[in-house]
Amino acid sequence: MAFLGTSASLSHATVQTLNYVSLDAKPAYANAKVLPYANANAPKGGMITYPATGTFDNFNSVNGKGTAADGLQYLYDSLMSSSLDEPGVMYPLLAKSVTYDPDQPKTAIFHLDPRAEFSDGSPLTAEDVVFTFKKLLTEGAPGIRIYFSEIEDIQATSKHDVKFIFKTNDNKEMPLIVSSVSIFSKKYWQGKDFTRVTSQAPLGSGPYVIDRVEGGRTISYRRNPNYWGKDVMVNKGANNFDRIKFVYYRSLDIGFEGFKTGQYTAHTEYTARRWVTEYDFNAVQAGLIKKIEFHHQNPVPTQSTVLNTRRKVLDDIYFRQALSYAYDFEWMNKALFYGQYQRLQSYFANSELEAKGKPSPAELKVLQPYFKTMHPLIKHGIMRDWKNPVSDASGFNRFNLLVARHMLANQGYKVNKKGQLLDKQGKPIAFELLIHQDGLQRTLMPFVRNAKKLGIDITVRQVDVPQYIERKRNYDFDMTTDVLPQSLNPGNEQGRFWSSTAADEVGNYNFSGIKNPVIDAQIDRLIRSPNREQLVTNTRVLDRMLRAGYYHILSYGKGSEWYAVWDMFERPKREPKLNVGMQYWWIDAKKAEKVQQYLRRQS
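That's the Extracellular solute-binding protein sequence above. Prediction below.
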């Protein structure tokens, strides 16, 4: 049974008490004792180690200050926990149930588990939930305040009941959003400044506590043997490592050298060249490294070159369109990526949310009111069967560059005797492309060379990670690269990515500086989608608008993730569909000892 309590009719609303939160789908595991991708009998013990880049100086990840330490999520619990199999479904964690109308959620009352407590043994109550959200709404990072702006009020109606009141009843995602937030201790934060960088980890209620910190170089977390939630359904078979450690490197390229020698044990691979050609080092030959390709059912993270429309010339949609023809994916995939990638044609690739072909009747119905105020080039792009420019993979990209040159000439751009493209004031056009990764120049130089053939001077500027983060946070760049994760249930976060409000908020995610009232209106429509069918339609319409605006040059991706691990881990027989689920892995003691013997011999 999905119902735990009462059901009452209020006007046209049906308020229910449920042991899950779901956007549309009927949860598969509402009555499960153990999740199917977990091994309830998994042994505890051992350590898993991950790489991180740059450094860290802040243990408060939500105030927008400094650089937050990796792994802070292990310190906290949220009201509910996401299913790794079902998009838009969450199961009990701090809250054992929730009372709300799933179709018109004007309010949601979360009923906390009376057993819930912080790691120091103090009880976690509704007052802590109220404190957390009021801090986020008043002192959280700007983007977070936007994300939660639909919350009108939060009230503790009893010690274990907390009531959220939303500004409207047509944003079905709000109960899901508030369910996923880490809860802080009101008592801990009394007398402390929430807005400042803190070098001390705040008190949490999660499965781990801070173990050891080495100033900006490593941080490790220790499993809390007294963790209150170890018997909650979503935690059975989870959190099996005694310790979780992050080792910081200047870049992931340097970090990979550390992986080869066992400095860390779980590596996520992002480079096709390395995945195909560089896994031949000693530990691999000794059979101690396992490569894993996890095929997921999520949208592919949107990897792209961001064009900052706050800068002159890049604010011209016709210029951005022409520049996109300088990107030669077909040659790069053949020469650099060993054929491992696909060109991204969408901000929601690999999912039903991706806009394909020409607009459907349902999409046209949404689009029709926008056409009268829409830029003609955007309208043209929306109405056609969208495809990015395709080259012949020869490496010359001759045809596409001729098309780009023709587009620029039609818009009045001229080339001087030196072959430089001139802006409307007669000045040579030059940009800086900001990066921090060592290995990225190799994949960017073909684009830079092709732009040069158009008379556009692009200089690749590599800076250290802290400077990169700060400049990106303040939109202090002409172009940069980005990888934007997307959800199968897009909602409020789309405002942080694309809205006019976010474009003016320092530290938000609208890096391209989009200020388009049509896109703003569509984001609002998407957020208020009443059902899955309309959510899909509204997302496809937004996808068309973003593509046709040429705000990013979409690059490449794949519907899988690559991992390499030292062969000391075991996984449940059934893997989840949406996430590799490392929190459900465990250590095989015999394999771990074999790895340690090898590393001792190598040292």
